[in-house]
Prior knowledge:
The protein has 296 residues and is of the alpha/beta class. The chain has helices at 2-9, 13-26, 31-43, 104-112, 135-152, 166-179, 199-207, 213-216, 248-256, 274-277, 279-290, and strands spanning 61-66, 74-80, 89-93, 116-120, 159-164, 189-193, 234-239, 261-266.
Amino acid sequence: MLNAMLTRIRSKWVLFVVIAGIAGVLSAAGRAQLAQKERELLFRIELGTPSWYGGLPAGVQELHLAVPAAGPQRIHAWWWPARSRNAPALLYLHGSRWNLTGQARRIEQLHEFGFSVLAIDYRGFGQSTGDLPSEQTVYEDARIAWGRLAELEPDAGRRFIYGHSLGGAVAVDLAVALSTRHGGVPAAGLIVESSFTTLADAAAAVADTKLPIRWLLSQKFDSVDKIAGVRMPVLLVHGTNDRYVPASFSEQLYAAAAAPKKLLLIDGGSHNNSMRTGSNEYRKALRELFGLGRKG
């Protein structure tokens, strides 16, 4: 029965977490073992490079960021400066499964929008060292990367945070952390694409189950309770044809966020192609909410 369930839901990453929780409970596995399995199935790290990766884009500089609290561990990053010296700079936070080589197309699109982009692989992904990631370690990695972006672009008014899918929850956590600091503008804006309210909500919606998923999961990624504390403009983007994470989650995040904010639903957009499918709408939203791309 369990094997049949796994076959039916293989393409839906959030359901892997649900099955891991159920299996752990049924087999009386210890809490530590269950959490380990949950993290393996949540992050689903693919080794190597995807078939569509065409090589490091011209102009990208490879960086390695130290993790002071973790000894020799380091975070691998790409830094892709924009052509204009006055361009906005953006921290790119990816979701599960693929490392930076699987993100090249979306990073290239953001660079074409006019951003300088600092993109990182969390520890455990790609060339970053370290063990299996957790909710806590990816939050830590994002904060370390933000510190490096602040060195590359000292003007907080030109620094943005971007997160896709699971990376959207990481981006929200970073934005809240920055918003609680005293003095000045924490950042120019937050962009969250194809993300969810909480990991448990996403799993329950796709699984269509009444099981107490929230109590089974050790990884929470609770964006909906955090986003009201974000003190910067927020752009939420979602494709209407997202088969993995329903667009209704971005609508709920939008409702919970403080103004200024904007919700951009890309008609026909999927979980991964909204930036390309709705590039014109995307540019317009960046201009209207953040003032990016304006002439004069």
